[in-house]
Amino acid sequence: MRWDEVADLQCSVARSLAILGDRWTMMLIREAFLGTRRFDEMQVLSGASPQVVATRLSRLVEAGILRKIAYQQRPTRYEYRLTEMGRELHPVMVALMTWGDKWLDDGQGPPNPLRHATCGAITRPKMICDQCGEPVSVNDLVSEPSERMARQRHEMLAAAKSSS
Amino acid sequence: MRWDEVADLQCSVARSLAILGDRWTMMLIREAFLGTRRFDEMQVLSGASPQVVATRLSRLVEAGILRKIAYQQRPTRYEYRLTEMGRELHPVMVALMTWGDKWLDDGQGPPNPLRHATCGAITRPKMICDQCGEPVSVNDLVSEPSERMARQRHEMLAAAKSSS
After folding, report:
1. Labelling B36: which of A117, B90, B109, B141 has CA 20 to 30 A away?
2. Residue pairs spanning A and B at CB distance below 8 A
3. A95 touches B91 (CB < 8 A)
C-alpha cells in the first residue's frame, strides 16, 4: 500500500495518521500548540529542514489544520495558526505528553507541566466516558467495527492469501 | 536536526514522537490495539512492506512497547503483544480516532465505534482534569515550561540567529 492509500482505510485512526503520521508533521503541530507561528521559528524549534517545514506546513494548510495569515506587507510575511480542526487535536497532544512524561522520563520530571486554569492545579488529564462520566481504559472500551470496516479488513487478508 | 536527536528535546511530546512519529509505526500500534498479533497479518492490514514492518516491530520491541513471544516451536513462530507501556498508549489512539471520526468522516459515520463496557453506551471519550474532575480544553490548560525546556528552546533560537 502506498502511504496516501492509508486515507482510504475504514478506520479513523488510519485516516488521521494519513494526515498526521509523518515524522515532522506532528512536531510542527506541537510547535503550533506551544504558540510558535512563524516559519523561521517553526523550523528552528522543530529541527526539521526548511524544505521539510515548507511542504509539511502547506499540507497542513491544505488539510484545514493550520491557516496561513499575512501579518506584514512589503514584503508580505505569513504566520501559521491552528484552525478549529487543528485546535481539536489538543487531546492527542495531551495524551502523547502524558505518556511521555511517564514512560520517557529522564529523571528530571515533566519538561512541560500543564496547569488547569479552572482549578489551579498541575494536572495529568485522563479520559472519561462522555455518556456515564466514568473513567475509560483499554480494558473497558470495546471496539465494534462497522460492517464496511470488517469487510475491508477481511478482503485485505483474503487478497493477500490468494496472491501468496 | 537528525530525527534521532528529537529524543533529546526537553519535551515529552517530542520524545514520544521520536519513538512513535513515523508513518508506519503508529499503524502497527493501531493493529496491535485491534488485536492483530502476527507478523503476516500486521503486514497485510497495515499496508506496509515486509521490510518496513520488520524494522518497525523490532524498534517497538526495543523501546518496550511490544513484546515478542514464541507461540509455536519447529519452526519457531512469534507474535507481538502490547506491553503495559504499549497499552498505555490507548488514550493516544482514542484521541486520534475521536478526532478522525469528527473531522475525516466520509458521510458514513464512525468506522469503528467504541462501546463502554461499564455503562453499555457507545462513547466518545473526553478528557478531564485528574485533580478537579472538570473537563479540560485547549483554552484552560496552560503549559508551564520547566527552566530546562525554556533554556533549550532559547538556545536553539539564539544559535540559529547567530549562524544566519
Report:
1. B109
2. 318
3. yes
Q: What DSSP string describes B40-71?
A: HHHHHHH---HHHHHHHHHHHHHHTSEEEEEE
Pairwise CA distance, residues B130 & A11, whole Å: 29
Give phi and psi for B114, each to the nearest 5.
-110, 130
Neighbour count for residue B27 (Cβ, 10 Å): 27
Residue type, A123: T
Specify the CATH number of the domain B3-88+126-163. 1.10.10.10
Q: What is the pLDDT of residues B37-55, one digit of tens each?
A: 999 999 999 999 999 999 9
Q: pLDDT by residue (tens digit) across B116-154?
A: 999 999 999 999 999 999 999 999 999 999 999 999 999
Interchain CB distance below 8 Å, B102 and A88:
yes
Report chain B residues whose CB lies below 8 A from the CB of A157.
41, 44-45
Residue-range domain boundaries for chain A:
3-88+126-163
For B136, the grid coordinates are 479540560
Nearest to B112 by CA among A143, A20, A40: A143
Peptide bond into B125 cis (omega under 30): no
Q: What is the pLDDT of residue B158?
A: 95
Give the integer Cα–Cα distance in Å for A23 and A44: 16
ipTM value, please give it. 0.95
Of B3, B89, B101, the CB nearest to A23: B3
Q: Is the pTM of this model over 0.90?
A: yes
Residue with cell 521520536: B18
Distance from CA of B20 to the nearest CA of A (A): 8
